């Protein structure tokens, strides 16, 4: 066994007497353990929240979405549609016309996003399992019907079973100044509500799905569309289909995957996770002051032992290693204990969901967590660097012990 490690271990595990220095060392170890455990748990929660957001969006968003690089709409030509249709890996193309409109139901009104989609939208299967009332359909017989969010239903007090009232949707027209007829300033169309969906508050309170023809007439878009939503084939990777579309489409179009459609939110989560990591690493650094002071006091307390080692031929490097190993034992014992506790708590939460979010979503009620090897790796690297920095000065102090004064 390495001599310096052997002596460091004896200092840490001394059973003859438990001095104040030993108590501080144990406290330092426990503080490192708690900090490491908290860091692993919090990072796992951020990982889980990121996956939860993705799962919520996957129930609403397309695998790939083609939009104009500039402006709100683009002209859908047969050539453009043929390019997309003949791209390898494209299974379903849903045409989308989406804009804000005023919706009235009896005496209530609300501004919401009216999203017109072609009939094959339902074939993508994204709304399956989100319908809480009614039937998942865009038509009932020959008549168009709307699929509205639960929040919109609550704001307007919509009753699906009441056939006497329809949704009245108003959309502003581009008119020349000086027009005196108020009816020229807007387009009004009526549509019956057919189903209620519930995904997440942001969507439930803002979206109404209608057939594409209904939306095109309401918005007066003609051949213009706001997006083309793509479902890929099972045997093709989404990233490969995205790359092929980018290569084949003319300039002026952007092909977005699910993450890119919400890049700002996901980027914000990653930034928050980074700052949480830095904050907890700083807490670990503060906790390392306990290691610094315990090693410094140990170096002062063991000056006679160090002098004896020097007289027996020990080098300053050997003495320095003893105290570096002592700091490493304190920190790594705490880090290993904290890691085991953190991983255990995360696994228990993942399995049993003991801690709830205090809210209900369509996919999750307990706090989501997810362990990632990279988090464990960065935690280990942080602990190692902090330990070396905290142990270096006391180890150097011990190596400079004056032999003549203590022998």
TrEMBL record:
One of its GO terms (cellular component) is plasma membrane protein complex. Keywords: Cell membrane, Lipoprotein, Membrane, Transmembrane, Transmembrane helix. It comes from the Bacteria. Residues 25-156 form the MacB-like periplasmic core domain. Signal peptide: none annotated. The keyword Lipoprotein applies. Residues 278-401 form the ABC3 transporter permease C-terminal domain. The keyword Lipoprotein applies. It is a multi-pass membrane protein. The chain crosses the membrane at residues 20-46, 274-301, 322-347, 367-390. One of its GO terms (biological process) is lipoprotein localization to outer membrane. It is found in: Cell membrane. Belongs to the ABC-4 integral membrane protein family. LolC/E subfamily. This is Lipoprotein-releasing system transmembrane protein lolE. It comes from Cesiribacter andamanensis AMV16. The gene is lolE_2.
